[in-house]
Amino acid sequence: MSGPLAQGEPVIPDFGEGSDCVVENRLFCPDWVRDNWAGVLQPALLEHVKLTLIAVAVGFVLSFAAALVTHRFRLAEKPFVAFSAIVYTIPSLALFQLLVPVTGLTVTTVEVALVGYTLLILYRNTLEGLRGVPVDVLEAARGMGLTRRQTLWRVELPLAVPAIMAGLRVAVVSTIALATVAAFVIPQGLGYPIYLALREAFKTEIIVAGALAIGLALVADGLLVVAERALTPWAQTRRVR
Amino acid sequence: MILGLDLGVFADALEFVADERRLILEKTWEHLELSVGAMGLALLLALPLGVWLGHLHRGSFVAVNVANLGRALPSLALIAVGFVLLGVGFWSVALALVVLAVPPILTNAYVAVDGVEADAVEAARGMGMTRWQIVRRVELPLALPLIFAGIRTATVFVVATATIAAVAGGGGLGDIIVNQAAYGLEGVVGAAICVSVLALAADFLLGLVQRALTPAGLRAQAHAFEPDVLTGTSHR
């Protein structure tokens, strides 16, 4: 939908005309991207970011809490790992469909599944980070008269940041990739334009939306690396464990 | 109220699976064919490369970044791109699956062989082993559990993504899942159950093999039922 006529008339969609490139369905049509950025691609991108943020935030809170409980009371590790490992192994499309009878064709369905996939990664990394704190350090903390809670918040958690961030990076990147499959359930996210374009085999849309998803994942990963550096100023020169 | 509803759907789904045994078996077979084909090709490509790079202790940058990039690849987009480039059919989908399967296999093979204790390799060299003998008799056996963990990750990945392949005419159990109009919700849920069971079974069986390959001393680290999530290479 381009050409002099189609431009600047968003109110009346012009279904009849497409540029030669779009009509012939060439590999990549920049004009289509220009014309559909605001209407199709940008909203999909924003929805994708939102789906990911909610899933990782909820997943992080759950796994973080579970890891703290496990670390403090040394319980529930095996059942939590077993449960999250099973969820992790179930193919995404199948998990979405299994949840549909329970929560319907809703964002909830998608978020529950996406959260489920983050649990194993985040839990394991948080716990491993907490357990990786050297005994000497813990004894020094006790020697300084820190209470258990103070030790956790001032010593153990800061030292666990690299491991936690490594888990967050994996979780964010894989959630961004997985969220494209949400298109089978709800018309949201970058998967949806791909899903629609597959029916007509419209190449440009598939390639652009796919590239946006990959780009989003790489940008998010980069941001988390920057965040990790900011959170661990003492580790500037050292490699992470 | 809500609970009654879902139990009904799941019961119907199991009934569907029982009634449509032949369809389910046929689709499962297609699913396996696709997964095994893609895994075969991915192993052929990634395993020798990963082992060789690990042996030379070179290319860590490539091996590590391949894993990061592999994780970022959205399976749906990859299937769609394969479809765009190669059209409908087995090979376009198989190619997309190969691209997904290569990173975990390659990275794990690299990390595994690269991490073999230098002393062991030195000793082998001191015994007069050739380079090929060192790879085959020392590095590979010691690296085997970790290499296998990568294969396991890739397999679960491929079985899962083969489901999505249905949108590009790849066949398999996904054919039923994406076609609610023909099979109804009970068919969709039934096929979803089958795919889940297939993935869990594949993971479990490969986990047993992985455990069998792990030397007794290291066995505590390899749980039979715990997918290797490649927990961030920066974390190693």
Describe the model.
The complex is a heterodimer of chains A (241) and B (236). Chain A is mainly alpha-helical. Chain A has one domain (33-234): MetI-like (MetI-like fold, Orthogonal Bundle). Chain A has helices at residues 3-6, 20-24, 30-73, 77-89, 92-103, 107-131, 135-143, 148-178, 191-200, 203-231. The longest helix of chain A is centred in the first third of the chain and has 44 residues, at 30-73. Chain B is mainly α and 236 residues long. Chain B has one domain: MetI-like fold (Orthogonal Bundle), CATH 1.10.3720. Chain B contains 9 helices and no strands. Chain B has helices at 2-19, 21-56, 60-72, 75-86, 90-114, 118-126, 131-164, 174-177, 180-213. The longest helix of chain B is centred in the N-terminal third of the chain and has 36 residues, at 21-56. Mean pLDDT of chain B is 83; it is low at 222-236. At the A-B interface, helix 4, helix 5, helix 6, helix 8 and helix 9 of A face helix 1, helix 3, helix 4, helix 7 and helix 9 of B.
Q: What is the CA-atom radius of gyration of chain B, in angstroms?
A: 21 Å
CATH superfamily of chain A: MetI-like
| Mean pLDDT over all positions of chain B | 83
Q: Kindly identify the CATH topology of chain A.
A: MetI-like fold
Which helices and strands occur, and which strands form pairs?
The complex is a heterodimer of chains A (241) and B (236).
Chain A: H1 3-6, H2 20-24, H3 30-73, H4 77-89, H5 92-103, H6 107-131, H7 135-143, H8 148-178, H9 191-200, H10 203-231
Helix pairs in contact in A: 3-6, 3-8, 3-10, 4-6, 5-6, 6-8, 7-8, 8-10, 9-10
Chain B: H1 2-19, H2 21-56, H3 60-72, H4 75-86, H5 90-114, H6 118-126, H7 131-164, H8 174-177, H9 180-213
Helix pairs in contact in B: 1-9, 2-5, 2-7, 3-5, 4-5, 5-7, 6-7, 7-9
